[in-house]
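Why does residue order matter? Because the sequence determines the fold. Keep that principle in mind as you read this record.
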Amino acid sequence: MANLFKQKSSANVQNFANVGGYSVPTGCVATVIGMTLANMSNTGLTVDVQVNKGVNGGVSNISILKDAPIPVGGSLVVVGGDQKVVLEVNHSMQVNVTSRASAPGNVDAVMSILESDQ
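Structure:
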């Protein structure tokens, strides 16, 4: 069984974007071992993080974080330490950002993954 560490990142994430454009490839299972979001705006933000299960006609998004604040110049560790998130084929992590000001807010996102063969 092959194991492969990967790092995916996205700059200026806003509207339910997949972090790093990553979704789990066929024949693999992935464990998210770390995920950090950094506020790149000049205003406070709130973020939502979801697991997109890629299901057609069923429940496709499961929230793991809802309306969490990130202050100006701050960051938020979504996954890390003892917490891990397992993703299956076609699953992805999505981030949505809401600004507390009229200007759109954005975050930079970094995700560390361990992929394993199924």
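The chain has a mean pLDDT of 90.
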